[in-house]
Amino acid sequence: MKRTIRNILILISPFLVMVVVNEYIRNTIEETPYSAHGITAINSADRTVEKCTWICHNNTSYCKKKHVKYLKPYFGLTDVLYFGVIDLLYSTGNYGLANIVFLVILMPLILWFLLIRSANIQDEITKLKKENE
Length: 133
Hints:
mainly alpha; 8% strand; 133 residues; single chain; 68% helix
């Protein structure tokens, strides 16, 4: 029972934190929200040097020039990974659906599974140590 509750909490806590932070931040944003395809986002589409907006999502080079400070020496590596993932998602024929399936559903589930597996193994190690004392 304890494991089940722990596992469920590990699964839902990142989503709860994300929702709480987004809803808290929503009230502090003064710019006009970005809208596309009938959906209104939290962030604006304004070009600003102070922070990333939807312009950074839609124009990566603008973001890299204006907002990236520490990773500039690593663009050779990060660009290959970043644009590789984007190209892979586009190659499916439905970028939006592939993005949701792979990055929103599958990747978190794989990470959750591996974390739970690790925690269960640690429980077994602890149990064995107590038995051998």
